[in-house]
Amino acid sequence: MSESKKIGVTEVVLRDAHQSLLATRFRYHDMEAALKNLDDVGFWSVESWGGAIFDSCIRYLGEDPWHRIRKIKSMMPNTPQQMLLRGQNLLGYKHYSDDVVNKFVECSKENGVDVFRVFDALNDPRNMHQALQAVIGMDGHAQGTISYTTSPVHTVDLWVELAKKIQDMGAHSLAIKDMAGLLKPYVAFELVSRLKDELEIPVHMHCHATTGMSVATGVKAIEAGLDNIDTSISSMSMTYGHTPTETLISILDGTNRETGLDLEKLTPIAEHFQKVRKKYKNFEGSLRGVDARILASQVPGGMLTNLENQLKAQDSIDRFDEVISEIPKVREDLGFIPLVTPTSQIVGTQSVINILSGSRYSTVTNEVKSLLKGEYGATPAPVNKDLQQEGIGDSAVITCRPADVLTDDFQSVEDEFKQALFEKNITADASVENILIYAMFPEIGLNFLENVDNPDYFESEPLDIVELTDSSYLVTVDDQEYSVTLKADSTVTINDGSQVNQVAPTASIQTGSGEVIAAPLGGNIFRVIITEGESVDADSTILILEAMKMETEIKAPSAGVVGKIFVKPGDSVKPGTPLFEIVS
To answer: Which positions ≥6 away from 92 have C-beta within 8 Å?
Structure first.
């Protein structure tokens, strides 16, 4: 540590910490009491938006994501607010036209975002360019990103060349985003040393703690000249999350790279989130230490907790280890792509389907087909040609910048949105913010706007729970305390003696002579394409199931007539739920 220079710290508790540890379920009011204290610390920035926040707000929580960032900014006027932006994907799962990207960045800046960490899941610089230019045009801080991964084709030289391209695009800083905790300490020292020698812009680093290396990696990177580092308050750190803020401050205290931050100012923040975290216990993953399997599977922290919750929803948590083993195989088939949203969801969902169906690639998600077709950009290595042929047949593969072939623009999205409001009789206004919600999440966005004043539509507010014994809990609802005892017979006994069965309901239907097709995964019915009574060929798509945020086509197994359809768009289904019947 020869150079005497303070290192900047970005606190991630308001975004990536709870995305990684608690499946992005923090509600704004559970963070609000800590915002003033966070603002007083002197962080380089606080990451408070982007990533899965937007999706979670409208899908699960019933909160307006634009309102959230405005409130956070108003409560933290002294600290730059940072977001994670998926380049041409924005916050969705596909590419959007350049003018939609421009509108989104403009709107985000106006609502309170100061620092935009722009990345592309494939590390294709063409997919970062427009978003970086839009941020620069809005006088925001444009931070380009290396999504770090390891494979036979990824080398330090490759990362340095990518970093130079990002700098040439005008980025104000560069971030090394180590979403799975794969960056080894001495590799970090070599990489940061090279970057500091060859770049003129500052270098930031973001590491997850899943493999146990993040603290050591951070220290070695700082020794090599790193400028800024991401951390999370101690009560919301480690396992699937990040290096504890207090730990890093203490390690650097008294050195020529100290942070200049006061540990005492962090104590009330840590205490606040320690208390709040208990409310979200049901979203906690099972990891209690480190997971060395991630060195092979490369699953990022945020994906792990979501994957566990998704497998629980499929009644298949017992197959978690099988899915973890399948993920690196699918990743290799798809060209050794990094695992970061949306590619982590694409690979993860396909891996779940491969395991639960008992046959690899018997069903291929639409997103995998899009990736095989080049709609997400250039993969680091060639994809599996047999899988590509199976997924897209003889369709031409896109080799140009994917956004260059898009035909939708902001005006067409706005017109479509207004028409949808009229047809569904939704009273929401056609603000730019609402149009952008619809642009990224058409079905989910419309459902959100239609039900924004209907709390019963969204997930229930977590209860304030304080554990008393192994089987007894004190539950606070509207300031009223109840003693609740969990018994082995799957009933809940409340202190007034009443009991509530927790046996899940089962569906029972009668059909004629047709073959009933059941849901292979739990999820929501996204679209029904065929109507009852229609004749279909074998392999015709009957409906689309949205499972784990990905679209899966459910096809007819044989030619025939579609008999009864048991579901409709918006319905929630479990694995094995009857969907439709085919009468031969």
So the answer is: 55, 86, 342, 439, 440, 441
Q: Which H, E and C letters describe 16-36, residue by residue?
A: HHHHHHHCCCCCHHHCHHHHH
For residue 303, pLDDT over 80 is answered with: no
273's enclosing H/E stretch is helix 263-277
Structure tokens, 141 = 């801080």
Average pLDDT over residues 469-485: 51
Under 8 Å between Cβ of 132 and 105: no
CA neighbor of 462 nearest in space, from 21, 31, 61: 61
CB-CB contact of 390 with 80 (8 Å): no
Q: How far is CA 37 from CA 43, 53, 145, 487, in A?
A: 11, 22, 29, 41
Whole-number mean pLDDT of the chain? 89
Let me know if 70 is exposed, middle or buried by CB neighbors in 10 A (0-12, 13-18, 19+): middle
Per-residue pLDDT band for 474 (boundaries 50, 70, 90) equals low
pLDDT in tens, 212-268: 999 999 999 999 999 999 999 999 999 999 999 999 999 999 999 999 999 999 999
Asked whether 582 and 558 are in contact (CB, 8 A), the reply is yes
If 0-12 CB within 10 Å is exposed, 13-18 middle and 19+ buried, where does residue 355 land?
A: buried
Measured distance CA(51)–CA(342) in Å, rounded:
10
3-state SS assignment for residue 219: helix
**Cis peptide upstream of residue 380 (ω within 30 degrees of 0):** no
pLDDT tens digits for range 354-383: 998 888 998 898 899 999 999 999 999 999
pTM check: above 0.90: no
Quote the pLDDT of residue 96: 97
Cα distances (angstroms) measured from residue 157 to each of 172, 195, 379, 428? 21, 10, 17, 50
Distances (CA, A) of 514 to 10, 510, 580: 59, 11, 9
Q: Are 130 and 88 in contact (CB under 8 A)?
A: yes
High-pLDDT (> 90) share of the chain, % = 72
CA distances from residue 71 to 35, 43, 107, 135 in whole angstroms, order as listed: 10, 18, 15, 21
Half-sphere CA count of 92, side-chain side, radius 13 A: 22
d(CA 487, CA 383): 51
Cβ atoms of 441 and 132 within 8 Å: the answer is no
User: Which of 25, 15, 102 lies closest to 439 in space, CA to CA?
Assistant: 102
Cα angle value 297/356/391 (rounded, 5°):
80
Question: Is there a contact between 522 and 575 (Cβ–Cβ < 8 Å)?
Answer: yes
User: Could you tell me which residue, 490 or 59, shows the higher pLDDT?
Assistant: 59
b/e sequence 497-532, b meaning 16+ C-beta within 10 Å: eeeeeeeeeeeeeeeeebeebebbbbbbbbebebee
What does the pLDDT average to over 342-360?
Answer: 89
Residue 432 CA, chain-centre distance (Å), reads: 23
